[in-house]
Amino acid sequence: MRGWKMEKTLPGANFDPDPETLKSTTLPDKGDIHVVATAIAAQARTIITYNVRDFPNRILLPLGLRVETPDAFCTRLFREAQADVVEGARLHRASLKKPSYDPGSYLSHLELLGFKRTAESLRTCQNMP
């Protein structure tokens, strides 16, 4: 998505990255610099990615950022806001129609997607999603 379409869909998503950030930050994959620039512009604290190796802490920490896998992020959110994560999982499961999932198969599906710790956390809830 470019230009006006991006702005219409995600207001505020278009920005000009800080040229100094782009020049002074070196990542293993130079093509990922836009991710760091976007995180800084959004005042994010965490970059969520399966590609953790391409975002070394020695580079991110001085910028006030950290990197987490999606499973680690969801697990941390579960600890910080359990009721919200359980409700989000419930709504997500309810939105899945082809196929639909009962609670147990939904958690198994999350595990297959790489959300093993998140599924384990959700299994501990009385009101499993």
Outline the structure in words.
The mean pLDDT is 87. The chain is elongated. Helices cover 53% and strands 5% of the residues. The protein folds into 2 domains: 3-68, no CATH class; 71-123, no CATH class. By secondary structure, the protein is mainly alpha-helical. The protein has a two-stranded parallel sheet with strand order 1-2. It is built from 8 helices and 2 strands.
- Overall pLDDT level: 87
Helicity range: 40-55%
Rg: 18 Å
Domain module tally: 2
> Please, how many helices?
8
Order of helices and strands: HHHEHEHHHH
User: What profile does the largest beta sheet have?
Assistant: 2 strands, parallel
Number of extended strands? 2
Tell me the β content: under 5%
Low-confidence residue ranges: none
Structural class: mainly alpha
> What overall geometry do the principal axes of the alpha carbons give?
elongated
Side by side, the strands of the main sheet go 1-2
Distance between the termini: 33 Å
Annotate the secondary structure layout:
Layout: H1 3-9, H2 19-24, H3 33-41, E1 46-48, H4 57-60, E2 66-68, H5 70-80, H6 82-95, H7 103-112, H8 116-123
Parallel strand pairs: 1-2
Keywords, please?
129 residues, 2 domains, two-stranded parallel sheet, elongated
Task: Provide a brief overview of the structure.
By secondary structure, the chain is mainly α. It has eight helices and two strands; from the N terminus they run αααβαβαααα. The protein is 53% helix and 5% strand.
